[in-house]
Amino acid sequence: MNGAESLLSSLVSHGVEVCFTNPGTSEMHFVAALDRVPQMRGVLCLFEGVASGAADGYGRVAGKPASTLLHLGPGMGNGLANFHNARRAKTPIINVVGDHATYHLQYDAPLTSDIAAVARSFSKLVATPQNANQVSALVNIAYREATSPEKGISTLIIPADVSWNETPSEDASGFDGNLWVDEGVQVETIDLGFARELIAKGGETLLLLGGDALREEGLKLIERIVATFGVRVLAETFPAILDRGGELLPVDRLAYLGEMASAQLGGAKNIITIGAKEPASFFAYPNSRSLLAPEGANIFHLVGSGEDPAAKLTALCDSMTLSTSIERQSFGLPEIPAGELTATKVAQTIGALLREGTIVVDEANTSGFSLPSSTKGAPRHSWLTLTGGAIGQGMPLATGAAIADPDARVLCLEADGSSLYTFQALWSQARENLNVTTVLFNNQSYAILELELAKVGALESSPSARRMLELNSPLIDFCDLSRAMGVEAVKVRTVSELSKALIHSFDTPGPLLIEAVLPAGMS
Amino acid sequence: MNGAESLLSSLVSHGVEVCFTNPGTSEMHFVAALDRVPQMRGVLCLFEGVASGAADGYGRVAGKPASTLLHLGPGMGNGLANFHNARRAKTPIINVVGDHATYHLQYDAPLTSDIAAVARSFSKLVATPQNANQVSALVNIAYREATSPEKGISTLIIPADVSWNETPSEDASGFDGNLWVDEGVQVETIDLGFARELIAKGGETLLLLGGDALREEGLKLIERIVATFGVRVLAETFPAILDRGGELLPVDRLAYLGEMASAQLGGAKNIITIGAKEPASFFAYPNSRSLLAPEGANIFHLVGSGEDPAAKLTALCDSMTLSTSIERQSFGLPEIPAGELTATKVAQTIGALLREGTIVVDEANTSGFSLPSSTKGAPRHSWLTLTGGAIGQGMPLATGAAIADPDARVLCLEADGSSLYTFQALWSQARENLNVTTVLFNNQSYAILELELAKVGALESSPSARRMLELNSPLIDFCDLSRAMGVEAVKVRTVSELSKALIHSFDTPGPLLIEAVLPAGMS
Questions:
Q1: In a mutagenesis test of the B interface, which of A8, A12, A19, A31 is the best target, namely the one with the most B β-carbons within 10 Å?
Q2: Residue contact A475–B486, C-beta within 8 A
Q3: CB contacts, 8 Å: A476 with chain B
Q4: Which residues of chain A are within 8 Å of residue B483 when distances are taken between CB atoms?
């Protein structure tokens, strides 16, 4: 057995059975080993940002890590933005990056770079086995770190000779110098007794939920706390995965725009975070506060670093007497509107047609402002968001989610500007015949930046600046783009065309891209 | 004047007048300032890897830096691969990256990451002004470092409040803690006298040329050394820019494949590098040496770190008596072949039709093996190569080269697999109406990896592995892709179709993509 086979076998032994890959020469022994360890499914991606985003989508939905296989530092660099999003989502991933042979590094060949330094910017663990015998031991540590209660990315840098050398002995010691683990940030927490006291105060206490507290089991517990004590609840702005719809307690997300978020938090005297962070604005602005909670509000954290939010929430509920009688608010489905599309009408149509079990990947950005309200009454579904703010996540995330749950329909809501970072994902969707319906919101601009330029007071007066935010010169044909990548596509301009296309896609296995042509700019 | 205007004004004062940009919220004050500092030309890119690659192409051709404008750590990450290539090319670039406001960083908002740590992996200098007054002073230092004899990338990380705050005073001190400069690697050099002794040995001495020694002025000096002493010459494998054709001394490049490179260096007793590194193989392989020079050959370096290869070469020649009578070898143009295309026939056709002054960007990879020989007799042109081995460079590089020299025709020779990393560059070519002719070699595979898998002995026996190297399921329509991005495209299958398309494009301003359909795999 060589190091590459040891790597694959060790991963498979932990249940890591998908590898999103864009390999090169230094990874060729790993690629060759795929035929000797057939339990590992290789999924080829045309660009590393697709691989890292797909691993993120897979991990969020499957709740266990996929692996990636990337080509040295530049290949990993191409995956960095979506690894950044995955870090914020706390998604478990085993990121495998090939490097030059250990003895070859000294010659500083063209592809040489400091892989570990870059990997530390998004990883919980970075390890570089120095011989084939260390591979299996380091995979074990990497897996443990990626899947420990505070989940994250473990990066394994595999020198080419470590891949191709045999593993004759069990001597796996001596890697301490090549193993780095993020120390994390210690968070001061409150005990369950004090949390109960705060919760007993009812409406002046607000629970800010994140992580697994937003999954079905967590929401059922939260619903009982709300029913018993009347506390308020909000979800963090960008959850990794939020279960919604059907019988589940509807939880509004904290708004992206600071003014709206401050309004949502208004009146709260005590904010208890459960798997979320203290609310701060996404960006700073001149003469605005960074923190969003009302001045004088107390912020408490129930869950410490390295603790499991769902487990802590369960412990809290077990220590309280909670009502079992729940009165559920009923939300109707939106009416399907008519006429030419706007972003709001797209959202209403989706809200009316969304089916049970759908996995929604939301990178609609400005075009998606009304999606949360229009889908509130939809059947039970899950919602994945742009956790780290690095656009170009949606289509890769949808690809990985569809592989994690092949029986589900994945509905990818994608903004035009964002799609252009990683739409190579469509090719992998076609290649693997994945059940992904992409709705491409085409408003021909980086509309969110028009909003920001307006805030700077320069939207009308600055033609050069404004030109940097427009995607209409030349116009991009997203249907051509999709078909070139092997995914059938349809352009829709009216609600009835959109409805028809959505229903058709929901009924038809495999991927489809629906380009929704919207008025230019914000709508 | 605010910090953003100070930044733009300072850049323009140094002659930095192009900014390849993919901005976000934290860069909005810089974008707004474009209208107040109109000497700076903003070129919008849909993806940061296009911006970094275009800045590389611009810098190689213009010989002076362009700037970039990127959105925090993930945006810079998307540009990393082409910054890596630019680092290897020693291209001067001023890389501007926005960050959160200084006081906002503590809240670890979603887009927060360690930008400086990642930037150090490819930069000569990384600086973060802490107030608007420091901007101008740091731009001066960044420009000096980027354009000093050993050129490179200076990264300026600009916090949002540094952009938007006014610059009331001249107090620009106190930035030392936020300024990092790469110490570089000291190279032991030989003095001119010893170099003359070695050169006098004639054919047993080989000059390995790199950097500016491969530009027209350098080659004219080298030609006289060769004519006088009969030394052998080779160019480094992947020069940033190599002047060729017409009356220039033809210099073969050291081969990419180690066995071929060793053969080229065979018999050399003394190798003097002039702007190049000691020859080492691109990758290591089991049971192969990493170093390519014959065992026992002596390696000497004429140019130290921080020294200008062209200046050192001039000094050497000034210290010698060189022949002025040059006998030039004449290379004819290749015949235009006939019939269905192969990679070799494409190369011959290009060799026959290449026009004077063309800037060739070569990322043809395996499809381009015969390009150097087929273009040896072409009129005077320049050749840009994949300096750092990070694929996805070609189309961005061509974009920047065309902006640096708007009167030239840029011929971008692009492999199918490589094009799929950064073909968003086509949109910028259409938007700016650039004179770029792209020949897309479509062999439906990562052919170079098939070669590598064969070396591992697993090409035929490993269907799963082989499937990771094929781009034919689904087939990608590069003409659709190009048109979707706004660039007209034509698919050619025969030599006569290719010839017609090339001549048409050379005669017609603006961009065109020619998809050359080749037999699958290596040809």
A1: A31
A2: yes
A3: 427, 484-486
A4: 477, 480
Which residue's structure tokens are 């075009």?
Answer: A367
Contacts of A111 in chain B (CB under 8 A): 84, 282-283, 388-390
B31-84 per-position pLDDT tens digit: 999 989 999 999 999 999 999 999 999 999 999 999 999 999 999 999 999 999
End-to-end CA distance of chain A: 59
- pLDDT for the residue numbered A324: 83
Which residues lie below 8 Å from residue B117, measured CB to CB, with a gap of 6+?
A117, A118, A120, A121
pLDDT in tens, B295-325: 999 999 999 988 888 899 999 999 999 988 8
User: What pLDDT, in 10s, does the model give residues B236-288?
Assistant: 999 999 999 999 999 999 999 999 999 999 999 999 999 999 999 999 999 89
Find, among A400, A515, A468, the residue nearest to A83 by Cα.
A400
Q: How far is Cα A342 from Cα B173, in angstroms, rounded to an integer?
A: 52
B351, B378 Cβ separation under 8 angstroms: yes
Note the pLDDT of residue A523.
Answer: 53
Q: What pLDDT does B462 receive?
A: 84
> Do residues B485 and A416 touch, judged by C-beta distance below 8 A?
no
Q: What is the DSSP string of B235-293?
A: E-SS-S-EEESTTSPP-PBPPSSHHHHHHHHTT-SEEEEESSPPPB-SS--TT--SB-S
Contact yes or no for B75/B47 (Cβ under 8 A): no
Give the count of beta carbons closer than 10 Å to the beta carbon of residue B14. 18
Amino acid of residue B201 = K
Q: DSSP letter at A154?
A: E
Q: Across residues B412-435, what is the average pLDDT?
A: 97
Interatomic CA distance for residues A117 and A114, integer angstroms: 6
Burial of B319 (0-12, 13-18, 19+ CB in 10 A): exposed
Cross-chain residue pair A476–B463, CB shorter than 8 Å: no
Look up residue A172 and give its two tokens: 């796996």
User: In this predicted structure, what is the pLDDT of residue B412?
Assistant: 98
A486 within 8 A of A431, measured Cβ to Cβ: yes
Any CB–CB contact under 8 A between A120 and chain B? yes
- Among chain B residues, the shortest Cα distance to A282 is held by B109
Q: CB contacts < 8 Å between A and B, how many?
A: 304
Handedness of CA B252, B253, B255, B261 (dihedral sign): positive
Interchain contact, A480 vs B475, CB within 8 Å: no
pLDDT band at B16 (very low <50, low <70, confident <90, very high): very high
B458 vs A420: CB contact, 8 Å cut-off? no
Is the preceding omega at residue A474 within 30 degrees of 0, hence cis? yes
What is the pLDDT, as a whole number, of residue B431?
Answer: 97
**Is A111 part of the contact surface with chain B (CB cutoff 8 Å)?**
yes
The band of A366, judged by pLDDT with boundaries at 50, 70 and 90, is confident
Cα A341 from chain centre: 28
ipTM of the complex: 0.96
B455, amino acid identity = K
Does the reported pTM lie above 0.95?
Answer: yes
Q: What is the pLDDT of residue A149?
A: 86
Distance CA B75, CA A91 (A): 20
With pLDDT > 70 as the criterion, what percentage of chain B qualifies?
99
Find the CB nearest B113 among A121, A473, A486: A121
Query: Three-class SS of residue B203?
Result: helix
**Mean pLDDT of all residues in B92-98:** 98
Element (H, E) at A98: strand A93-99
Strands A512-517, A489-492: pairing kind:
parallel
Position B461 scores a pLDDT of 76
**A370 has pLDDT over 60:** yes
